[in-house]
Amino acid sequence: MNPQNMTGPHKANMERFDPPQVVDEKTIRFTAKEIHWKNLMAAGDFYILCKHAYEKKDLLQLLELQLEAEQIDQEHLNNIAEDRLKYFIKILKEQLFELEQEVAIYEQQFNARMKRPIYSRLNPKTMMMTLERDIRSLRHDIGNLKADIEIFENRNSLKAFLKSYKIQKKRPVDDFDDFLDDFLHPENFR
Of 79, 104, 145, 172, whose CA is between 20 and 30 Å from 93? Predict the structure, then answer.
C-alpha cells in the first residue's frame, strides 16, 4: 500500500492483503496475509481502477468508469463518505487549476500574436469587436490601394504623384508610445 494515497477507512482492509497480482487483462488475484472471516467482505469492497485513468489522476474518468461498472444510483451518491467526497473535491479543484493555467497560457499566446495586451481576457464579444474593427480597417486599406492603382495606371497621374511625393524623415522609435497605444485601447476597458 502506498502511504501517499489517501485510503481513509479502507486502510485496515487493505492491510489484510499482499499487493494484488494481475493474472490477465480482466483478472486480479488478492492473497490474504492470514485467514479471517472478514477477508471476503474486505476484498469485495475494493475498487479496481484502470491504470491509465488512475496515473493521470483523471478523477472524472474514474468516476464515469465507477458509475458504469456499478451502475451507481442517486441513493448511493447521497451516502458517499465525507472523507471520500473531500478527496474528490480536492482532485477536481487541482484539475480545475491546471485547466485554468492552460487556458491562461493559450490566451497569452493568442494575445501576443494579435498584438493585444498579454493579460487581457478573451471573450466572444471583444473578439467579435476586434474582428469587425480589423475587417473595417482591411476594407479601408483595400479601398486606398484600389484608388492608388487607378492613379498609377494613368501615366500622367503617376508622374504628378511622384513629383509631389516627399520622403518623410524617420521619427525616433519610442516603444513607450506603442505600449500606451495598446494599453489604452478602448477595448481593454470593456
Answer: 79
Interatomic CA distance for residues 59 and 139, integer angstroms: 50
- Could you tell me which of 138, 142, 86, 134 has the C-alpha nearest to residue 113? 134
| Phi/psi of residue 32, nearest 5 degrees | -75, 145
Which pLDDT tens digit goes with each residue over 94-140?
A: 888 888 888 888 888 888 887 788 888 878 888 888 889 889 999 99
Percentage of the chain lying above the pLDDT 90 cut: 7
Give CA–CA dist 84/28, Å, rounded: 24
Element (H, E) at 85: helix 82-113
**Cell 472478514, residue?**
38
Place of cell 466572444: 124
Phi-psi region of 145 (alpha: psi -120 to 50; beta: other; left: phi over 0): alpha
What amino acid is encoded at 75 in this protein? Answer: E
The model carries a pTM of 0.36
Average pLDDT, integer, range 37-49:
71
How many Cβ atoms are within 10 Å of 116's Cβ, its own excluded?
A: 20
